């Protein structure tokens, strides 16, 4: 069965979010299948693959069709403390022994940052291109993921605001995003690892040519601006970009796999019962280089 891609909300005026039919992520992909998925990503930015009963090796193999995988260096747990391999981000509330983390567990508190609007790995010098999230165990309610279309948000900005934002460079760090939640329990090594990196505020998609905002809760400063003024602009832009008309909500089913383009979207997880397991495995494909080296 050939791959077909259909909009999730066909009556929506903005093309954003689609379901992929006929795909099997557990097996090697043909060149035509990879090309079809990439074209779907360029058009819809978020793709949903239902009933994909994959393991980590299969997920990594599928993800590598689209570029090199990042290592999970942004996770708070490193080395022997990790539950999953170094190329799989552990988006769960489980410790390395598979037990639910306590409410005051440091890794759990750090992970609450996933409930803030963000773009994966924008805190890295070379941010991410795509992410693929596999739902292994989900709670009986809550835990949805919301996606915001940063292309559509850019298109609706006032021209004067577009001009103001066009050439700005922000600084991104998990110190900023977690700090906004009151999490400041960072070791000296983590402060160095999470040092702020510069990212363009406005990006141009290499294939479609469309401009989009590149926002995230990790963005906490604008080069050359006073901090309060910078954060006020970033807050205003985030409020615009996450208006309901720009947002798609994914309601998870077990074994869903959802792939999105971090260059043109933001996303966030929603709350779910802390006494239930939510076990999601994420692979992340690196972009081609720092945003400051990419033409706008």
Quickly describe the structure.
The protein is of the alpha+beta class.
- Tell me the radius of gyration: 18 Å
Top CATH class: Alpha Beta
Per CATH, the superfamily is Clavaminate synthase-like
> Can you tell me the number of structural domains?
1
Fraction of residues in H or I helices: 10-25%
What is the residue-mean pLDDT, rounded to a whole number?
A: 96
Low-confidence stretches: none
Number of strands: 15
Q: Largest sheet at a glance?
A: 7 strands, mixed
Tally of alpha and pi helices: 8
Structural commentary:
By secondary structure, this protein is of the alpha+beta class. The chain has a single domain (4-293), classed as Double-stranded beta-helix (4-Layer Sandwich), CATH 3.60.130.10. The protein is built from eight helices and 15 strands. It has helices spanning 31-44, 56-63, 106-111, 150-155, 159-165, 174-179, 188-193, 227-241, and strands at 4-7, 18-21, 46-49, 89-92, 128-137, 145-149, 169-172, 197-200, 202-204, 211-213, 219-222, 247-250, 257-261, 265-269, 279-286. The strands form four sheets. The protein has a seven-stranded mixed beta sheet with strand order 1-2-3-13-5-15-4, with helices on one face. The chain has a three-stranded antiparallel beta sheet with strand order 12-6-14. The longest helix has 15 residues, at 227-241. The radius of gyration is 18 Å and the shape is globular. It starts with a strand and ends in a 10-residue tail after the last strand.
Chart the SSEs and their pairings:
Layout: E1 4-7, E2 18-21, H1 31-44, E3 46-49, H2 56-63, E4 89-92, H3 106-111, E5 128-137, E6 145-149, H4 150-155, H5 159-165, E7 169-172, H6 174-179, H7 188-193, E8 197-200, E9 202-204, E10 211-213, E11 219-222, H8 227-241, E12 247-250, E13 257-261, E14 265-269, E15 279-286
Parallel strand pairs: 2-3
Antiparallel strand pairs: 1-2, 3-13, 4-15, 5-13, 5-15, 6-12, 6-14, 7-8, 7-11, 9-10
């Amino acid at each position: 069965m050939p791959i077909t891609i259909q909009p999730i909300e066909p009556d929506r005026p903005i093309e954003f979010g689609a379901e992929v039919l006929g795909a099997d992520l557990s097996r090697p992909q043909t060149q035509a299948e990879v090309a079809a998925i990439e074209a779907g990503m360029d058009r819809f930015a978020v793709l949903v693959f239902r009933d994909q009963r994959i393991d980590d090796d299969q997920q990594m193999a599928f993800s590598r069709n689209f570029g090199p995988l990042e290592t999970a260096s942004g996770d708070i747990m490193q080395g022997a403390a990790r539950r999953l391999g170094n190329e799989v981000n552990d988006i769960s509330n489980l410790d390395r022994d598979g037990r639910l983390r306590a409410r005051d567990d440091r890794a759990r508190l750090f992970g609450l940052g996933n409930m803030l609007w963000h773009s994966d790995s924008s805190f890295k010098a070379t941010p991410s291109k795509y992410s693929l999230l596999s739902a292994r165990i989900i709670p009986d309610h809550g835990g949805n993921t919301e996606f915001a279309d940063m292309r559509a948000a850019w298109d609706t900005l006032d021209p004067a605001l577009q001009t103001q934002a066009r050439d700005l460079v922000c600084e991104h760090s998990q110190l900023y995003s977690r700090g906004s939640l009151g999490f400041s329990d960072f070791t000296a090594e983590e402060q160095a690892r999470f040092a702020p990196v510069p990212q363009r505020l406005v990006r141009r998609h290499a294939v479609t040519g469309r401009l989009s905002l590149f926002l995230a809760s990790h963005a906490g400063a604008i080069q050359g601006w006073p901090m309060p003024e910078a954060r006020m602009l970033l807050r205003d832009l985030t409020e615009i970009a996450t208006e309901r008309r720009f947002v798609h909500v994914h309601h998870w089913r077990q074994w869903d796999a959802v792939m999105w383009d971090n260059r043109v979207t933001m996303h966030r997880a929603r709350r779910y019962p802390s006494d239930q397991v939510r076990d999601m495995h994420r692979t992340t494909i690196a972009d081609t280089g720092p945003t400051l080296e990419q033409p706008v």
